[in-house]
């Protein structure tokens, strides 16, 4: 069992590694305009590995901790969008997904609890690769309809977004943006609504990953289930501090360049995870 308060000398490498991860995640999140989950998970996975955390729990820990960090950032983002333009967020869609998305996220937490680290890495790599291909070959003219589909299709899509996002430790923005724009909604409304989707994913995701990892051996200090609170406390302020610097760099690039750059980042992460499993 881990001591309640490990010696400071043992904690310093852990703190330093997490701070460095926060700097990188903040810069990349600001550069690509992403909430951070797809960036934080692979960074956490490698940092936890360098710190000697058991391979059996570090992917689970990376996913759960990422979702915990998304909770305050998604709530803050949602409130900001509502304050700036109350009509920008599709409240009807969020109300329609108030069961569907959390249900999918809780299903993901159960799947993660019963999955091995290897299986979770494969899942993350496959979904990342599919998202990257969508970004690379995306065309603004692609559209499946003039308005969002009705239930049960809409409910199933919300559940699917919850499942995939929960298994990737992300807020679901990329998936919801794709869904809404394919059905005639503007990217601005899609982005604003995605902040609310992030709330519906991250809160039940946090609860699910705490439950899934409760009492699991091999977890680092200050962990509750698959959530490491030291990482949460350190990463939130550091990523918020560094994101504006990445955003400044983003202004020098076009939207297509940013989208293509993030797609290449996801491809690189997918390759790394596939190699870690099969090499």
The major sheet is characterized as: 2 strands, antiparallel
How much of the sequence is in beta strands?
under 5%
Q: What is the general shape? A: globular
Mean pLDDT across all amino acids: 82
Q: Radius of gyration in whole Å, from Cα?
A: 18 Å
What oligomeric assembly is this protein in? single chain
What does this structure look like?
The chain has helices spanning about 10-30, 35-50, 55-85, 90-95, 100-115, 115-135, 155-170, 175-180, 185-210, 230-250, 255-279; strands at about 225, 225-230. The chain has about 280 residues and is mostly helical. The chain has one domain. A two-stranded antiparallel ribbon has the order 1-2. Keywords: Cell membrane, Membrane, Transmembrane, Transmembrane helix. This is Probable membrane transporter protein. InterPro entries: TM_pro_TauE-like.
């Amino acid at each position: 069992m881990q001591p309640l308060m490990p010696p400071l000398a043992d904690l310093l490498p852990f703190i330093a590694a997490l701070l460095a991860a926060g700097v990188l995640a903040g810069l990349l999140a600001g550069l690509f305009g992403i909430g951070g989950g797809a960036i934080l998970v692979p960074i956490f996975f490698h940092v936890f590995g360098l710190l000697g955390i058991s391979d059996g729990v570090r992917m689970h820990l990376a996913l759960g901790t990422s979702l915990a960090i998304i909770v305050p950032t998604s709530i803050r983002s949602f409130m900001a969008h509502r304050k700036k333009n109350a009509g920008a967020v599709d409240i009807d869609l969020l109300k329609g997904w108030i069961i569907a998305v959390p249900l999918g996220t809780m299903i993901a937490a159960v799947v993660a609890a019963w999955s091995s680290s290897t299986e979770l890495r494969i899942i993350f790599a496959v979904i990342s690769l599919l998202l990257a291909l969508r970004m690379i070959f995306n065309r603004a003219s692609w559209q499946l309809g003039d308005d969002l589909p009705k239930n049960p299709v809409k409910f199933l899509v919300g559940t699917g977004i919850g499942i995939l996002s929960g298994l990737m430790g992300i807020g679901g923005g990329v998936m919801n943006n794709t869904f809404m724009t394919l059905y005639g909604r503007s990217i601005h409304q899609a982005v604003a609504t995605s902040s609310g989707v992030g709330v519906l994913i991250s809160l039940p995701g946090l609860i699910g990953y705490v439950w899934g990892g409760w009492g699991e051996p091999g977890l680092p200090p200050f962990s509750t289930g698959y959530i490491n609170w030291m990482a949460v406390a350190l990463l939130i302020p550091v990523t918020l501090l560094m994101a504006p610097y990445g955003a400044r760099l983003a202004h020098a690039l076009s939207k297509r360049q940013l989208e293509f750059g993030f797609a290449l980042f996801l491809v690189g992460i997918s390759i790394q995870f596939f190699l870690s499993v099969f090499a």
